[in-house]
TrEMBL record:
The keyword Phosphoprotein does not apply. This is DNAH. InterPro entries: AAA_9 (IPR035706), AAA_lid_11 (IPR041658), AAA_lid_11_sf (IPR042219), DHC (IPR026983), DYNC2H1-like_lid (IPR054354), Dynein_C (IPR041228), Dynein_C_barrel (IPR043160), Dynein_HC_stalk (IPR024743). Residues 29-111 form the Dynein 2 heavy chain 1 cytoplasmic ATPase lid domain. It comes from Mytilus coruscus (Sea mussel). PANTHER family: DYNEIN HEAVY CHAIN, DYNEIN HEAVY CHAIN 6, AXONEMAL-LIKE-RELATED.
């Protein structure tokens, strides 16, 4: 829909604004400004939209009509009492456009431009002269809250000019919000908000939006800039309710929708004005923003409420709707509800621009920019930060600001060099200020308190010296008193003894009777229980009988009554009943009794205990009958069965009861006797109690007498002690007085530097945590300098650790497990001093171990991936325990936010915190630690605000110190142990002495009364004196020992340095491949310690390792083990014993002999280096092994440049290393002067060149490109060793041509150059390369012979170290299995096209004879739970293996797998010893690092080289793809062995062809072993089924189906067929056939046995000849260049980046990019003149020319592989080409027009006239879409001759000219002259077009033979002469045999050459079936058959990469 015109906009807004002015009764002067107001608003809108364009950093710079409407809406807030003049309305206009347009701008330049626009508009439309500077410095503010007491309805929107009063008003609002409204005050921090200039403006802006109905905002700024606080205050000012999300774990879209419903109900139903604040941290899921986008757009969320909820809303709103005259219908009320929501709801988003999320969110949710007022929050200016620091002294506040600014600069440098993110936010600055204030207060208070305590102690000691009393007289009088009291006590004691004897006699009698009573009671109870048991045996039977009776009913009884003559048994049963009822037992009575209505009830209620014995005696007559039993009776009558059962049960009950009754009677009698005995016993106990009371009275009298006697004795002792204490104090006070006086002086000195020391320490705690050691050191130095410059007192030699914590505290930390380096000590200091919880970057686990050691067993350790960790957290908070949350990701769980920010509040006198919806009590002892194993996590500013990030990554110096301690502990254990014990002792002694002093001072301070009564004080002073004397001696001894240790330790520093160097190389490997993970624990324990222990031990273990190697799968799978190959197998007791004997028998090393010590250390260094290399190299992919060797060697040499080396390895300086890695970039940064000074010319030659002499044409050899030459100049300018390099290259062509042509370049440079002919060049300078060291030679080779770099790097490593560091070991699965344990995962690291499943299956069969024990499951698609179940079952069964394939496909399940594996190592976990967990994964970041570090890694990849591939295919022991049985199978026929061998070689060739890059395959395909296995099966089947070899079927199935099925590029398919033709052809069956022209690779001899194949393969060369691939040496050179580039890029990827500081530039990245862009715009014309021609007449022009417009290119650059500089030059050429073409058309058109005017009629346009509009030749490379251009040529020809365009094709003819010589076609440096080639000469008059500017890749055009020829050595690319594209009509060919047609095509001497736009060749598949990069196929004549060039990979290119 088109935008409305300016006229329409003016009309719309004039009507709206005019009506408002009319209704508001504004002054006439104001109404007259209606037109200027609208016009000015529209003008600002247009100027902003046209000038402020969006960029990646300014994605929100999009302006639309809604912004214009916001301006008008702001003007509608005017009040007639305020806006009364033109100046008033101009001020309001300026304010509103500023709020809408200015507030979103992000940089000063844009803001200056806006104010210029505003100033211009104010002058143009209002005639007001306000300059941009005036508008910026005196910004206009409007608001309605200036009067605090006004109600919201009475507020007036007015200008605010008094900024000072405005600040006071805002402070009052803030105080009211904080303390008057508990809803807002719950979580607000106690710190006062500072209202600096920006803060005031942001609050005013937010309050303006909240007063507008439906106003929404987006606040954009780094976290910590105060956005949320501003929203809280502004919403309070506007009288709105603030609504925030309450997040909890598991918070998702459902919970968010519930909160949205609540917001809608509050604003729509209750009519409250709601500010809905959504922060970055609240956006747990991006889907939240979709709902927000809907609300901003339409005011509602579709399907938010269900029908029931909508009905409830309608019921609540019915009354309000009625009052608003809304019809009572469902839709009307709902729309009324939505309108209220739209009016009352204000959505506020606070987003951070850090990262790319903000830009992405704006793009995905357009309403964010369209419907919201955007307020951009800058980083705080200095004024703001000084305002915050106004509580400090002015100088201190200034330094605080400077410190914060240095952090921002350091963060940029940190990113540029280390690619590590760091964010310093205003929140960090405020935290710094708070921390400084707190530390200063605490330190000052601590120092003052200590000083006062010492002074008080000195005064107390002085007072005590005067209080030596005289207690001797008192001692004399105490003696007689004590003797008298002793006599009285003895009398009482005698009487007490007598009474005690009498009491004891009575007690004995009572005790005996109690025991008798107890035994008799037990007997009675046992007898009673026996009676109960007897009765219990019969009661169940009786109960059963009664239940049977109850089951009978009247019908059953009625049956019995009906018996006229019942069976005899029935009569017997009823007669027995008569007996029990004591009636006559005849049938008549029985029948009568049955007829009674209560018969059954009478049976149940019969009193069984009252029946006499005669009844049961009589009953025996019936019951003794054998048939009188329920079963027999039941056969006659069912009811009588139950009656019979009841009768027998009663009889049994009677018999048992008859026996029990006598017993019961005896029990009752015994109980009566017990009662009598108990009464007697009670009387005796009462008598005993009276006697005991009398005895107690005597005891009290005796005790009193004894106490009096003891009191006298104690008084005597106390008096004596006082006399002794007096003597002790007199002796001890003198020394203590001196020591304490010195302490007072020390404290006074510390107080002098307190401010500066505390300032730097607080800054360190607040800021330096995330930095590495180097950056920390630089920052500390700069901060100390700042303090000194600001004249802030600070300690002269400031040391962070020494100035902040005591030495004994550091020793205590180190004894708790803290590493001994300064970096770790700083980390511990930060943890102790910081107020926020720490988050450790801990890839090596050092922080994890330290926290575990420090906190002890009470530490709760939980993984962040544990879904239930919040329960543990809540428990720890309540109890006050420590908790460690490990494996934290880059985004923190939002549920942690209240804990991290300590959002506590008081409820009921308790400190409470709210987690989700739960309130729990907060214990102040709670401690939270977090760790992440990621080495370089990217934490956004929101995380920095919440936690204190501390980089605990091990440092080189730290690791060096740890390893040095390990070496000394091994070599000099007594010294190291002595040192360790000494350090612990010193720490303990210092602490003890400190405690004693504290205790002494405390006791002196608290002493009341007589000082000589305080024994603790006296003892403390006495101990202090003794400890002080001992301490001085111990310190002196420790200093002497430390000197000895330092000397001894420094001797072993080279070993520690080598160890640290090696580890950091291993740490860098993870940057190459995420699977290359090696833990520090493994390195220290398994490798370093074992390697320095003893050489013979390692050798012995190596022998054991080699003896276990078997030929299983050797060379296929490369392992690495956490338990390295040097680890002793604990199952082999004999080996352990042997190792022990070896260790005992080894001779000791005389470390006093320097030569012997050096030899010993060299052994350790070499052993360590070789062990690390051997273990690690086999865990790497083959393409990274040389890189690892080179990194190892270069790192050692770089370390040697800094530390002492004894290994005689060379050195590499940092500048040399930077040149090697970044020389190409640094060379481009050289200035023109430097380039001129090193141009290789003498001063005279340079002068002649400037004057146009002959030497002007002098240039480097043609094989040296411009980039190479520039790097040579840089080498010469940078390194003194490269002096005269450029001069030698320019003058001595013989030397450097030799350098270029010879292959072994590195070896060539080791000897002086001599002219091969013995002649010396006249002016040539011989460069002395033999004087260079190895690395300098590499630098030259890298620049001038990059193809030789890989081989030279191998030679370099071999020279510096040895060839052992170039060979790689290999292990088999058998060995891996034997070394592993049930708790160690075995990990296959996969490369493309590999699958270890078949190998593992084969190994499982070999190991166990079958694969029944192997369970395999492929992960992905929800297979995780199944895999877990499989593991849980397998680990407890016997001998099960589990293989989890493709772990990278189950990234979400990987944390669970990590937990499972960690559980294996738990002490409580029982795992079968034969259980194994096998894993396979592609390199993937999701794979758990801990599993990689603890598991055994094996890289699985195809072997490198044809020979290795073939040996793998024909592996011995049946492990290869081809087995002996398969090979010797006679069924397929005699051709089977040869074709099978050829098929395997073909498979190897297509795999290895990938190394040639684009020459090999256009697209890299994942051919794998399954392709070979399927092809072998097809080959076998076809040969079996056909008597003759079916070549056609064989070729089709193999080339089209099996392998060809993977090939998507048609030209790759052609190449595949050409290669296959070498191996599947009749000639391949003859013995003299060769697969390659060089004759190296031949078919097997007839009847060749299987063992002979391996022998034959062993004779093949390890180096693959390019001829077998159909390639040339040029292709091989290109391959080597690719390998070299890959190696360099890999090394660069793990090195610190080349920052702008290193390059000497002070410009930012954005500034550099803008400068480049400006240069580009200067180079390019603004546009191309439009062609004056009809599209129908010339469609080929219109398909391409419009695409070449510069603006189009800037929006979407055309496809190219060129670097930016070359691309710009190419773009300029393209634009020039079309500009000249356009100029040609314009010139010819003007001629035609003039001709028409002169003839006064339409001229006849001849064909020749049309041809004048076309270039002579076309530069196809210049077209954006060359395919379309060629199609246009065909269309023109089709219209000309009147045929269908589909029937046309091109014929091609190469037009070789006289200037096309071999040299000119091969000279790629020659610049293309488009004007001369394209527009000079007459156009081609025949049909067709001439194309120029094409390049041949992989071949050259021979101008003599005029056909394709092989490229010259060293020149891969060549020019192709002009070529004629001539359209011709296709003829209907006679159908011929397909096979013959293909054969003719392959053998024809015409090559169908594909033409590509770029050298990438591959592209996306277009609708035509071809790649988008493919243009057309050009037929070129050739002397060789077509397949020759197909295998060469020859192609035509439109452009080269350079």
């Amino acid at each position: 829909m088109p935008l409305p015109s300016t006229r329409s906009l003016q009309h719309i807004y004039q009507v709206q604004l005019g009506r408002f002015f009319q209704e508001g009764e504004f002054a006439t002067e104001v109404k007259e400004q209606l037109l200027p107001l609208v016009s000015a608003s529209i003008a600002v809108y247009y100027r902003m939209g046209n000038n402020m364009l969006p960029t990646p950093a300014k994605s929100h710079y999009t302006f639309n009509l809604r912004d214009l409407s916001k301006v008008i809406q702001g003007l509608l807030q005017a009040h007639e009492s305020v806006i009364v003049s033109k100046d008033n309305i101009a001020g309001l206009f300026a304010h509103e456009v500023t709020r809408v347009f200015h507030d979103r701008l992000i940089c000063p330049e844009d803001r200056v431009m806006f104010y210029q626009f505003l100033s211009d508009n104010l002058h143009d439309y209002f005639k007001v002269k306000w300059t941009p500077e005036q508008l910026m410095s005196e910004q206009i503010l409007f608001g309605d809250f200036f009067d605090v007491g006004d109600k919201a309805s009475a507020r007036v929107y007015r200008p605010i000019s008094d900024r000072k009063k405005l600040r006071q008003v805002l402070e009052e609002y803030y105080m009211r919000m904080s303390f008057g409204n508990t809803k807002f005050g719950v979580y607000i921090r106690a710190s006062q908000m500072v209202f600096f200039k920006d803060a005031v403006e942001h609050v005013t802006r937010a309050a303006r939006v909240f007063r507008q109905p439906g106003g929404h905002m987006i606040l954009v700024g780094l976290d910590g800039t105060g956005k949320s606080t501003v929203v809280q205050l502004a919403s309070h000012i506007a009288g709105s309710e603030l609504f925030k999300l309450s997040l909890h774990r598991g918070y998702g879209i459902t919970e968010f929708r519930d909160d949205l419903k609540q917001v809608f109900k509050l604003s729509g139903v209750k009519g409250l004005t709601i500010v809905f604040l959504l922060t970055d941290a609240d956006i747990v899921k991006e889907s939240f923003l979709e709902d927000i986008n809907c609300i901003l757009n339409s005011g509602e969320v579709p399907d938010l409420f269900d029908a029931e909820e909508l009905d409830a809303i309608r019921m609540e709103l019915r009354q309000a709707a009625s009052q608003a005259d809304i019809p009572d219908t469902k839709d009307s009320v709902y729309q009324f509800f939505i309108s209220r929501v739209t009016r009352n709801l204000h959505i506020v988003l606070t987003l951070s621009p850090a990262g790319g999320k903000f830009r992405q969110r704006c793009r995905m949710n357009p309403a964010f920019v369209n419907c919201c007022t955007i307020d951009w929050y800058d980083e705080w200016e200095e004024e703001a930060m000084l305002s915050v620091a106004e509580i400090l002294k002015e100088r201190v506040g200034r330094v605080c600001v400077d410190i914060h600014n240095t952090i921002g600069k350091a963060a940029l440098k940190y990113w540029d060099e280390m690619r590590r993110h760091y964010y310093a936010t205003p929140s960090s600055y405020m935290e710094f200020i708070r921390l400084y204030s707190k530390m200063l207060r605490e330190n000052k208070q601590s120092f003052i308190n200590n000083k006062e305590r010492l002074e008080n102690g000195l005064s107390k000691l002085s007072e005590a010296n005067d209080l030596v009393g005289t207690y001797q007289e008192r001692l004399k009088t105490l003696g007689p008193q004590i003797e008298e009291k002793q006599r009285d006590t003895e009398v009482l004691l005698e009487q007490l003894q007598k009474d005690q004897d009498a009491v004891e006699q009575v007690q004995e009698i009572v005790r005996q009777e109690e025991e008798i009573m107890k035994r008799e009671t037990e007997i009675v109870h046992e007898y009673a229980e026996e009676c109960e048991r007897d009765l219990a045996t019969v009661l169940p039977a009786l109960d059963k009988a009664e239940e049977a009776l109850k089951s009978l009913d009247k019908s059953d009884v009625r049956v019995v009554r009906t018996y006229a003559n019942p069976p005899e048994l029935v009569k017997s049963v009823l007669r027995a009943v008569c007996v029990l009822f004591q009636k006559k037992d005849d049938w008549a009575n029985a029948k009568q009794m049955v007829k009674e209505p209560d018969f059954l009830k009478n049976l149940l209620t019969l009193d069984k205990d009252q029946l006499p014995g005669r009844v049961f005696h009589k009953l025996k007559r019936y019951s003794k009958h054998p048939d009188f039993n329920p079963v027999t009776v039941g056969q006659n009558s069912g009811p009588c069965e139950s009656i019979c059962l009841w009768v027998l049960a009663l009889e049994h009950y009677y018999e048992v009861n008859k026996m029990v009754k006598p017993k019961q009677k005896r029990v009752e009698e015994a109980k009566e006797a017990l009662k009598l005995a108990e009464g007697s016993l009670a009387q005796k106990q009462a008598s005993l109690q009276k006697i005991q009371q009398h005895l107690n009275m005597l005891q009290d009298r005796y005790t009193e007498s004894v106490n009096q006697r003891e009191s006298l004795k104690q008084e005597k002792i106390t008096t004596g002690l006082r006399l002794k204490r007096a003597a002790v104090l007199i002796d001890a006070l003198a020394n203590e007085k001196v020591r304490w006086q010195e302490s007072v002086k020390t404290l006074e000195l510390k107080l002098q530097g307190l401010v500066g020391d505390t300032l730097v320490a607080a800054a360190s705690v607040a800021y330096i945590g995330p930095y590495t050691a180097k950056y920390r050191k630089d920052l500390l130095v700069s901060w100390v300098d700042m303090s000194k410059s600001a004249q802030i007192p600070i300690t002269d030699k400031f040391d962070l650790v020494k100035s902040t914590v005591d030495a004994h505290q550091v020793l205590k930390w180190q004894n708790e497990g803290l590493p001994h380096d300064s970096h770790s000590t700083e980390n511990a200091l930060i943890v102790k001093k910081a107020q926020k919880f720490p988050l450790f970057i801990d890839p090596q686990g050092q922080a994890f171990n330290y926290i575990k050691e420090m906190e002890g067993a009470g530490l709760k350790i939980v993984a962040a991936s544990d879904p239930n960790y919040m329960r543990t957290l809540e428990s720890a908070i309540r109890v006050g325990e420590a908790m460690l949350l490990k494996e934290v990701t880059e985004s923190l769980d939002p549920a942690l936010r209240p804990v991290l920010l300590r959002e506590t509040f008081t409820r009921g006198g308790h400190t409470v915190i709210k987690l989700g919806d739960t309130e729990i009590e907060f214990n102040d002892n709670f401690r939270l630690y977090m760790t992440t194993s990621m080495s370089n996590p990217h934490y956004l500013p929101a995380v920095y605000i919440q936690v204190n990030i501390i980089n605990f990554t091990v440092t080189f110096e730290g690791l060096q110190e740890q390893l040095l301690s390990a070496v000394v502990r091994q070599e000099k254990p007594q010294l190291e142990n002595q040192r360790s014990e000494l350090l612990e002792s010193i720490a303990a002694d210092l602490q003890f002495l400190r405690d004693l002093e504290d205790k002494s001072l405390s006791l002196l301070q608290k002493t009341e009364g007589h000082i000589l009564d305080d024994q603790d004080l006296v003892d403390t002073l006495q101990k202090s004196k003794g400890m002080a004397e001992a301490m001085y001696k111990r310190i002196q001894k420790s200093e002497d020992t430390e000197k000895k240790l330092s000397v001894a330790r420094q001797k072993y520093l080279p070993v520690a340095t080598r160890g640290a160097t090696l580890y950091f190389v291993l740490a860098d490997l993870s940057g190459i491949d995420v699977m290359y993970q090696f833990s520090l624990e493994w390195f220290q324990q398994d490798m370093f310690i074992s390697c320095i222990t003893n050489q013979n031990l390692v050798a012995m273990k190596e022998m054991e390792r080699k003896s276990s190697i078997s030929p299983h799968l050797t060379g296929v799978i490369r392992p690495d083990s956490r338990q390295s190959v040097t680890r002793v197998s604990m199952d082999n007791k004999a080996s352990i014993e042997l190792f022990g004997k070896l260790k005992e028998s080894l001779p000791s090393v005389n470390t006093d002999d320097p030569a012997e010590l050096k030899k010993h250390m060299l052994d350790m260094i070499n052993r360590l280096t070789s062990s690390i290399y051997r273990v690690v190299s086999v865990a790497l992919f083959a393409r990274h092994q040389l890189t690892f060797s080179f990194m190892l060697c270069s790192s050692i040499m770089r370390a040697n440049a800094k530390y002492t080396d004894i290994a005689e390895v060379g050195k590499i300086e940092d500048v040399e290393w930077q040149v090697f890695l970044q020389g190409n970039i640094m060379a481009k940064m050289m200035d023109e002067k430097t380039l001129e000074e090193h141009d290789g010319l003498t001063a005279m030659e340079r002068l002649e060149a400037q004057n146009g002499g002959k030497s002007k044409q002098k240039s480097p050899p043609k094989w040296i490109s411009e980039a190479m030459w520039q790097q040579c100049q840089h080498l010469e300018a940078t390194l003194p060793e490269m002096d005269k390099l450029c001069r030698s290259i320019m003058s001595n062509s013989t030397q450097w041509n030799t350098f270029y042509k010879l292959e072994n370049t590195y070896k060539l440079m080791t000897e002086p150059f001599t002219n091969p002919k013995g002649e010396v060049t006249e002016h040539g300078i011989v460069f002395p390369w033999e004087q260079l060291n190895g690395f300098h030679r590499l630098l030259i080779i890298k620049v001038l012979r990059p193809g030789q770099l890989v081989e030279s790097a191998q030679k370099f490593v071999e020279d510096q170290m040895s060839s052992n560091y170039l060979s790689t070991g290999s292990f088999d699965l058998k060995e891996i299995y034997d070394e592993s344990s049930s708790k160690t995962p075995l990990i296959f690291i996969l490369s493309p096209g590999t699958d270890p499943a078949s190998q593992l299956i084969r190994f499982a069969k070999e190991e166990r004879g079958s694969t029944v024990h192997l369970d395999m499951i492929s992960l992905g698609r929800g297979q995780g739970p199944k895999a877990e179940e499989l593991i849980n079952k397998a680990k407890i069964l016997k001998g099960r293996w589990v293989f989890l394939q493709n772990c990278h496909l189950a990234s979400s399940w990987m944390p669970r797998l990590q937990a499972i594996v960690e559980k294996f190592n738990a002490s409580t976990e029982e795992v079968d010893k034969q259980f194994r967990l096998w894993l396979s994964s592609n390199p993937d970041p999701c794979f758990p690092i801990s599993i990689l570090q603890t598991g055994m890694k094996m890289t699985v990849e195809p072997p490198q080289g044809l020979k290795a591939n073939m040996l793998r295919a024909f592996g011995g022991s049946g492990t290869g793809v081809v087995t002996e049985k398969m090979y010797e199978d006679a069924v397929p026929g005699p051709a089977w062995p040869k074709l099978l061998f050829g098929l395997c070689l073909f498979n190897s060739v297509i795999h290895e062809r990938r190394k040639y890059g684009r020459l090999g395959w256009n697209i890299v395909y994942g051919f794998n072993d399954s392709d070979l296995e399927v092809s072998m099966l097809q080959l076998s089947n076809l040969l079996t089924e056909h008597p003759n070899v079916p070549w056609k079927a064989l070729t089709y199935l193999t080339g089209e189906v099996t392998y060809g099925g993977r090939v998507t590029d048609e030209w790759d398919r052609r190449c595949l067929h050409a290669l296959l033709g070498r191996f599947f052809c009749p000639s391949a069956l003859s013995d003299d056939y060769s697969y390659s022209p060089d004759g190296i690779y031949r078919p097997l001899k007839t009847n060749c046995a299987f063992p002979q194949i391996v022998t034959y393969l062993d004779t093949l060369p390890s180096y693959d000849s390019p001829e077998v691939f159909g390639m040339t040496e040029n292709a091989e050179r290109a391959c080597r260049i690719l390998q070299a580039d890959d190696m360099i890029e890999t090394i660069v990827s793990v090195q610190p980046r080349l920052s702008l500081d290193i390059m000497g530039s002070d410009k930012s990245n954005d500034q550099i990019v803008l400068e480049i862009s400006e240069n580009i715009m200067k180079e390019l014309p603004e546009s191309i003149e439009a062609f004056i021609c009809d599209e129908d007449a010339n469609p080929m022009i219109h398909q391409n020319v419009p695409q070449t417009n510069t603006e189009k290119y800037l929006n979407a650059a055309y496809e190219s592989c060129k670097p930016l500089g070359s691309w710009i030059y190419d773009l300029k050429l393209r634009v020039d080409f079309f500009a000249m073409w356009a100029e040609l058309i314009i010139t010819n058109t003007e001629k035609l027009i003039k001709q028409a005017v002169s003839t006064k009629g339409a001229p006849e346009i001849e064909g020749e006239d049309l041809m004048r509009n076309l270039p002579r030749a076309f530069w196809l490379s210049g077209f954006f879409f060359p395919q379309g251009f060629l199609t246009g040529v065909l269309q023109n020809h089709a219209r000309k001759v009147g045929i269908s365009v589909d029937s046309l094709v091109f014929n091609f003819q190469v037009l070789t000219s006289k200037t096309d010589t071999e040299d000119s076609l091969g000279d790629l440096k020659q610049k293309l002259s488009i004007k001369e080639v394209a527009f000079t000469g007459k156009p081609h008059t025949d049909d067709g077009i001439i194309i120029f500017g094409l390049y041949l890749d992989g071949a050259r055009w021979d101008p003599k033979t005029e056909c394709l020829q092989d490229s010259l050595p060293g020149f891969r690319f060549a020019h192709l002469p002009e070529i004629l594209f001539q359209p011709v009509q296709t003829t209907t060919a006679i159908e011929s045999d397909d096979e013959k047609e293909e054969e003719d095509e392959e053998n024809s001497h015409v090559y169908e050459c594909p033409l590509y736009r770029t050298s990438a060749r591959a592209g996306t598949l277009s609708s035509t079936g071809h790649s988008t990069n493919f243009v057309t196929a050009v037929t070129l004549p050739s002397e060789q058959p077509s397949r020759f060039w197909v295998m060469r990979g020859v192609a035509l290119l439109c452009q080269l990469d350079e």
